[in-house]
Specification:
Blueprint: H1 10-55, H2 59-73, E1 79-84, E2 90-96, H3 100-109, H4 118-124, E3 128-130, H5 141-150, E4 155-157, E5 160-162, E6 165-168
Antiparallel strand pairs: 1-2, 3-4, 5-6
Helix pairs in contact: 1-2, 3-5
Length: 169
């Protein structure tokens, strides 16, 4: 901008274009660098989690490590690892930042895998994200009440695998 009319020459335009091009390249380089740093940090985290899991022989401790890592890796508020009890209902195996009331309420609600988002994971073998259980028509009302009570509004489910096959919900 200038107070004088027509004070910019083609030379100014060429210089500004070159400056603009260089700024664009610098921004792309900075974004690439930041992405590379984040990818490296994720890789280091994966190495750490695998080392921690391999160092333990206690399955409860391993599940706790997985729950903690899942929370941190996904930038979540909490994580839970469920198994099935003798009657086939979901039962908490490990949790991270999960309220004891929530864990107890899930067990008392006697939820079958077929009633929960985990069912889609069991069928597909892939993680399933529920963006907002409150708006999902097929999400069980008793689970919505539990999530609301704990202030949780989205979730992702996945099945544990062993040797390429699923080992449970």
């Amino acid at each position: 901008m200038n107070r004088s009319p027509s004070s910019f020459t083609p030379y100014h335009q060429r210089i500004l274009q070159k400056l603009s091009n260089q700024a664009g390249i610098a921004i792309l380089n900075a974004q690439f660098y930041e992405g590379s740093k984040q990818a490296l940090q994720r890789q280091r985290s994966l190495v750490e989690i695998v080392a921690a899991i391999n160092a333990s022989r206690d399955h409860k401790e391993i599940l706790m490590i997985i729950a903690q890592f899942a929370t941190e890796f996904c930038h979540g508020d909490a994580a839970a690892v469920y198994g099935l009890n003798e009657e086939g209902y979901l039962i908490l195996q490990a949790g991270h930042n999960l309220s004891p009331l929530f864990a107890k309420a899930v067990e008392e609600a006697k939820i079958l895998p077929a009633e929960a988002a985990i069912n889609k994971t069991i069928i597909s073998g892939f993680p399933v994200e529920v963006f907002d259980p409150c708006t999902e028509p097929d999400f069980p009302p008793k689970l919505i009440a539990l999530l609301k009570k704990d202030g949780l509004r989205s979730l992702i489910t996945m099945a544990l695998t062993r040797g390429g096959g699923r080992s449970g919900p």
